[in-house]
């Protein structure tokens, strides 16, 4: 198998070399979010090398070719990657390059973007056995599981190195007979494994990624990158999975603002499924939903002073509560109930037509009133408020 790999051989020098791999194992992963395929990956593994291509469709179609060098203990010592625009496949100049060298308690990360004449270099403290983690790439989760099987570990903590981040992200694997539970930012994903640690499928529906991943014998990644790129050029770009949106409304003399992420349904069951009953939901996606009022309001019979807050929702099978929390500016998994200002009941109604993309609106009512509405799938939650 012949692949072009663009490597950062020195901080200011790009070298293109041909790499030939005699593969002992081949595999592929298809990554789905609801009924949309968001990425595909193919890879080959020998005792000394893990090499593959991953096609990502979000926010734009790209194809990344990577090579990871494995030491005698099976751990990654070096990772090299070049990312190309999808329509061009693995040809032309890469959009960006990354190299991660892992030695002892340090990972040295080198990054370079197309058109730049300089390379950014950073040193990231890590535990031995750290694993580089390209986005939407699952051969490296398999690398962790194989590492745990090889070392006969019942559990293992691994530092994930995301190229571009100045800090490693620790994760824990708990190994079972035929699976591994992987802690992803505090939420569990389950990988079903064979006896040597190969990932057969990956269920991330309880995490913020919400993806399902299946193993295939192979995929033509380069061809798919061109197909997805051509579809994108014709107006069929997948875009951001959960784009950010902002609502600004004047209610009387008050400005009311909501800033939130807008996930799509993608054929999934939302309330009671992707958004479980009885669990606090971030009311959107990604960063916590921000709520700002520059005048005091009364909502659900409770006075809310002017200021910036976050909005959370606690749905149940029979209704839901809106939570106004005093903390703001945090990621959507960082909910602190001690910071709650108030919890108020929402009114639930069935929509006449389903809403594919989560939508929040603020509708003025009279001189000093308004209604906050949350709509998704076939459900609307709403609550009125007044400006004091």
What report would you give on this structure?
The N and C termini lie far apart (70 Å). This protein has 2 helices and 26 strands. The N terminus is likely disordered. Helices cover 7% and strands 54% of the residues. With 388 residues, the protein is mainly beta. The longest helix is centred in the middle third of the chain and has 16 residues.
TL;DR?
The chain is mainly beta and 388 residues long. The chain contains 2 helices and 26 strands.
Furnish the topology, listing elements before pairings.
Layout: E1 2-10, E2 13-20, E3 25-33, E4 36-45, E5 49-56, E6 62-70, E7 76-85, E8 96-103, E9 106-113, E10 120-125, E11 131-132, H1 139-150, E12 155-161, E13 169-175, E14 179-184, E15 187-193, E16 199-203, E17 212-216, H2 221-236, E18 244-251, E19 254-261, E20 289-293, E21 297-299, E22 302-304, E23 307-315, E24 320-325, E25 340-365, E26 369-387
Parallel strand pairs: 11-12
Antiparallel strand pairs: 1-2, 3-4, 3-17, 4-5, 5-6, 6-7, 7-8, 8-9, 9-10, 12-13, 13-14, 14-15, 15-16, 16-17, 18-19, 19-20, 20-23, 21-22, 21-26, 23-24, 24-25, 25-26
